[in-house]
Design goal:
Elements (H helix, E strand, L loop, with lengths): L5 H18 L28 E4 L5 H7 L4 E11 L4 E9 L9 E4 L5 E13 L2 H19 L13 E3 L6 H11 L2 E3 H9 L10 E4 L2 E13 L9 E7 L12 H6 L6 E5 L3 E4 L3 H28 L10 H8 L11 H22 L5 H11 L2 H10 L21 H5 L1 H4 L5 E4 H31 L8 H10 L13 H7 L6 H7 L17 H21 L6 H12 L1 H10 L1 E11 L6 E11 L10 H25 L9 H6 L4 H17 L11 H16 L1 H11 L6 H8 L5 E6 L10 E7 L2 E9 L2 H21 L39 H4 L4
Antiparallel strand pairs: 1-13, 2-3, 2-5, 3-6, 4-5, 7-12, 8-9, 8-12, 9-10, 10-11, 14-15, 16-17, 17-18
Helix pairs in contact: 3-4, 3-7, 7-8, 8-14, 9-10, 9-14, 9-15, 9-18, 11-14, 17-23, 18-19, 18-23, 20-23, 23-24, 26-27
Length: 836
Amino acid sequence: MAWITENQAKKDAAFQAYKALYQAGLINENLLPLRRPNDGPEFNVKDDRASTEKASAQINPWISMVLASGSEWCKYSISIRSESGELISRMITLVPGYIPYIPPYTVFWSHTSTYEVAQEPLGPVSVTDEQINLLGQITHLIHIGGIGARLKSNNKDFVVLLSPSENIEPSILKEWLSAAQGVTVATKFCGNARSAISSSSRQAIVREIGREADPHVLQDFFLGSDNTTDDEWVLAAVKFPKRRDFLHPLTGKRESQNAAYRTVKHFDASACTIDNMPVSAATFAILLPCILHRFEIYMIAKSLQTDVLAPVGIVDTHLVLTAITTTAAGEHVNYQRLEYLGDCILKFSTSISLTALHLTWPESYLTAEKGRTNSNGYLCRASLAAGLDCYIVRNRFTGVKWQPLYTSQVLDADTRMEAPKSDLSTKTLADVIESLIGASYMDGGLTKSLKCIQTLLPNESWLPFDVALDKLYTTVPDDLMSSSLRFEKLEALVGYTFRRKHLLLEAITHPSFTSYREALSSSYQRLEFLGDAVLDYIVSSRLHAHSPPLPHHLMHRIRTAMVNGPFLAFLAFELSIPEDRINITINAATKQPEKTHETVKKMLWQFMRQTSPQIPLAQQAAVKRHDELKDEILAALYGGSEGREYPWSLLCRTGADKFFSDLVESIIGAIFIDASPPDADGGRGGLDAALVAVESFVSRLGILSILAYILENDVDCLHPKERLGQLAVGDEVRYVRVQDDVEVERGLYGCIVKVGDREVGGLVVERTRFEAETEAAWRAAAILMREEAGGVASGAMQENGQAEDGDEEEEDVWMSAEEGDHDGGEDNFQDAMDID
């Protein structure tokens, strides 16, 4: 359509564009931007959750077991062995329900000795009332041997019954009970045991008359003089442990106190008695609270596994227990590593579903929606809604005031009343969602992890991975709008041949690119959004699978080092392909044109399509900085430098604009979609094929080889800001902007670091805030480390004046997500580093 004036043409073009936005579903019926809750993402959602929420008390799984019990009991053999494999004790437990498999575990008997506890199922058994009565008496006797006078009840209707033998015939039980009850005068014991062949007959519990509550373990006995009168027997014994927590090693004060349990004391046999109950039963009795606690936490995990998580179908109960156990519980496992993995998988799954469900949403909409559904506040509310709070293991076992559980107590209405709610960290509630996602992944891969996400976050739409990928692929045009475009060199560079060339075209198109011939083409932003999550998953899953297992904080550091913007931009400069170039010059003598041939390197970033006049200038400046620093960076990344420290400061100084790293992630997103359908012969396709193709490109970039070097050589990936915060100990670290110094030219950013009131490292001037603060932190940390090594107190104060009002930056910013656009916008470190 032709218009008389330019102004009318512009107005009509704007109207047609707005009409297209409406038809694409990007504005609502009122022609306004989409807003939740009805038609679009919710923007600028603040995570204004409280630090704690009222959460249900940790469930008591014995209650549901007793209430659901029938006539059959389940028998389990519990064996306790020394480090050398010697059997210390073996007892049969009878439980009115199923106990999940518990892997063998260690108990810490002393500061030098540990025992291994192993459980073996012996199957169900029917028990008569007579047998229950006898087993109750035996169990009561064994408990007395463990906690003695502290046993508050004389009841014998225990939830967990103990038997010294697999054979629970009444005659066998009566015989053991008769032999184990009461005590023997020590002098008589010595006379009887002197002629015994087995040294084990000398093992017994010794009690000094009048101090029966202070038992000792007999080590040996001997005559105190040359005559052989029995009254002169002397007993050598060590103190029997009084503590009840054998699940945690002895450290600090507890270790020094344990010296008393290694000191041999001598007693006059005539002043002592010997327990008739075998020392092996007494040992089992004192360890029983720990054994039953381990029963309990696995039962909690099994209850969650068969209740809330039943649709997921997790097989491994140990994984579930790991996922619901907080560090505060002090157990042998905790959820931190699984939470790291689940966080990455949730981001991966969310990004794929959102991109496929909202084909017309721009990257900003997708990012906003992902931020909402992956936020700690949202996950905390989902955790409470799913009822996960009562399954979270957060109570630390101490054994203090431990008492056995009785059936009559469980059936009492007061016992079964719901315990009052207590405060629980909202981050813990959110973390458990992510750790359960991680556990599902470990149990059954991405398919099972998605089922867990669907189960725990049912209010969101989640597409199966193959369905989402098929939707993303089939909506891509199968031919290019311009037949003149050729991608052979770019495909050779990335090592992948695209079936849908339009995906590659979109992946290299900057948002600034305009062309009337390609009015419907999109920029790389949506693909970058997807590629960011795919790269994060590939790196994170490798780190989690590393052997030996890496602690969660180290995985976070290394992942950040592998997926941050400056690092990906650096690799975009390094990835190149040879290109023949013909140069035409004018011969000064003949005035005739002459051809010369040369081979040059064409880098990945040079394939980007853009029409902004500022971008070529930014590219030229970035190339210059890259060339100046690349040798040092490569030496640090591939082991050519003396130190083993990740080159955070050097990468920061390259000052690469964000579009360099965006290009890498958008190509990852494009490959991920294009590789998903089966090949022409009907071969492998789907999610696995897509990930294999992406891993090939990621390897080609050098990410996987650098990751391998970092892991093999223990490269320190701690960011300078984190390091400075650790070195500062209790002093506050501030990054103070300097604007009135003569060294700070217009358009540059000046920064000094203050640790407490001390200025450390001097003024740093760089292009951006991120560059200045990172360099300043690196310098300050180096100074503090030198002082620490030289014995200088790093917290000493120097008089350097106070920062002027307004100079101090309140927000701790490690990187601007939009550095390359020079728009002044500065996001927090995690956003900029493309991590959650």
